[in-house]
Design a protein that fits this description.
The protein is mostly helical and 439 residues long. It has helices at 2-7, 10-13, 16-23, 27-51, 57-65, 68-97, 106-122, 128-154, 178-189, 198-201, 209-238, 252-260, 265-297, 315-321, 323-334, 339-375, 386-401, 411-438. It is globular.
């Protein structure tokens, strides 16, 4: 449930407005093609997690099977991505809230939400997994309810006339922008599956990883694909695509219910998507602060980030993790119309890098274990190593395609300097460690 909750977030609830604009009804194919890459990554990390159910997950795998730099870089990048994602998520809350408070400046909502989340994380947190479990359930129930109600409307069970599936092929056809639109939409539909790697992060705390990890990965992959594809089919059948992909002014899920006239349905769905965004931001803030704390204790970050308060909370790491919120506030003041995509775009580039490192580590992992040991694992990635190679090529090509998507043009150029900085930091740190050993 935590993996599903991590994967179902603003990429689906808000980002789908951009993908619909790019591909029209063809976005359904974008989600299906993206699912192929996501499943390959998911099974790759599941194989490694079964053999190495450790804290640190893919950072440890990269360090073990590739090199120390990749192990450090992937952990630093993942931390950076989560910090930026927090900013994107609080920005999404402000966009959703504009449905009820259209005259309120976006930055005010971002500030209020950010302060609230920091205050919650500054308190002593108990049973965090249980807390997020229930928030994940809210997301799942909302999507299932959306699909069921939508199917009812499609087949004439609602207050309006039968919707049918004609909207999928009218207004320019199923592919109004051709396969080019389907491909460009994958720059964002792929990110809707980003979160499946959480199964590896939590593997170190699984009681029976040989059983629970394979089962969780299979069910998560199937459910996510069904949720996304069915949601898109329902949404685009009820409301013409060209009425929903006009911009980041609200969630298409909310706009769909508003269009069909079900009383209070739009407001209820808006409350759900706000809850979902708050949940994602809260989880990322918690995980990022603890990751920074861990990096500090291992000597990869400043000592201040490794200090604990009297209630066991790493306050300095928490404040550092709020950097994405500060960026969101500044963007909400100076560029409110572009804030979400600017933040989300940087996170997209970082996650592409993380997934590519996971795939490269898995290729080395398979070579290291050999065929006999691989055959004995309870979960297998079919068509290896060709599957990983196809996924790597797909990720690289999609990363290049961000140059041609409005709002994502700076995703890759923004990430490259970051990678150079952390690489320089890594080598400087290595030289210091060698100098100390030489003494």
């Amino acid at each position: 449930m935590m993996t599903i909750g991590g994967a179902i977030g603003v990429g689906l609830f808000l980002g789908s407005s951009v993908t619909i604009r790019l591909a029209g009804p063809g976005v359904i194919l974008s989600y299906l093609f993206s699912a192929v890459i996501a499943v390959i990554v998911a099974y790759s990390i599941a194989e490694m997690a079964v053999v190495h159910p450790v804290a640190g997950s893919f950072g440890v795998y990269a360090q073990t099977y590739l090199n120390e730099w990749s192990g450090f870089a992937v952990r630093a990048t993942y931390t950076f991505v989560q910090i930026v994602a927090i900013g994107a998520e609080v920005t999404a809350v402000a966009i959703y809230a504009s449905m009820w408070f259209p005259a309120a400046p976006q930055w005010i909502c971002v500030v209020v939400v950010s302060v609230g989340l920091i205050a919650v994380n500054a308190m002593q947190v108990g049973n965090f997994g249980e807390f997020e479990y229930w928030f994940a359930i809210i997301k799942v129930i909302a999507i299932v309810a959306f699909i069921l109600l939508g199917l009812g409307l499609i087949f004439g069970l609602g207050p309006s006339q039968t919707a049918g599936f004609s909207n999928l092929i009218s207004r320019g056809g199923f592919l109004p922008h051709g396969m080019k639109g389907v491909w460009l939409a994958m720059t964002l539909t792929l990110t809707s599956y980003m979160g499946v790697e959480i199964i590896g992060i939590t593997a170190g705390e699984a009681v029976q990883p040989q059983k629970t990890i394979p089962r969780a990965m299979r069910t998560v992959s199937i459910r996510l694909i069904l949720f996304y594809v069915l949601s898109m089919i329902v949404m685009l059948s009820i409301t013409p695509w060209d009425r929903m992909g006009s911009g980041l002014t609200g969630s298409p899920f909310v706009l769909t219910f508003a269009a069909v006239g079900i009383p209070f349905a739009a407001s209820i769905m808006n409350l759900v998507v706000i809850t979902a965004a708050l949940s994602s931001a809260n989880t990322n803030l918690y995980l990022t602060s603890r990751t920074l704390f861990s990096l500090s204790r291992d000597g990869y970050a400043g000592q201040a980030l490794g200090r604990l308060g009297s209630n066991g909370v790493p306050y300095m790491a928490l404040l550092a993790s709020a950097g994405g919120m500060v960026a969101a506030i500044l963007l909400a003041i100076f560029a409110p119309g572009q804030a979400f995509l600017l933040l989300y775009g940087i996170a997209v580039a970082g996650m592409f890098f993380v997934w590519m490192v996971i795939l490269l580590a898995h290729l080395a992992f398979r070579r290291s274990l050999g065929r006999a040991r691989i055959a004995s694992l309870p979960i297998h990635l079919p068509f290896s190593p060709y599957a990983q190679i196809i996924a790597l090529a797909g990720l690289a090509a999609i990363a290049v395609s961000t140059f041609y998507v409005e709002g994502l043009e700076y995703s890759f150029p923004s990430f490259v300097p970051f990678l150079l900085v952390i690489t320089a930091f890594y080598w400087t740190l290595k030289q210091r460690i060698r100098g100390r050993r030489g003494r």
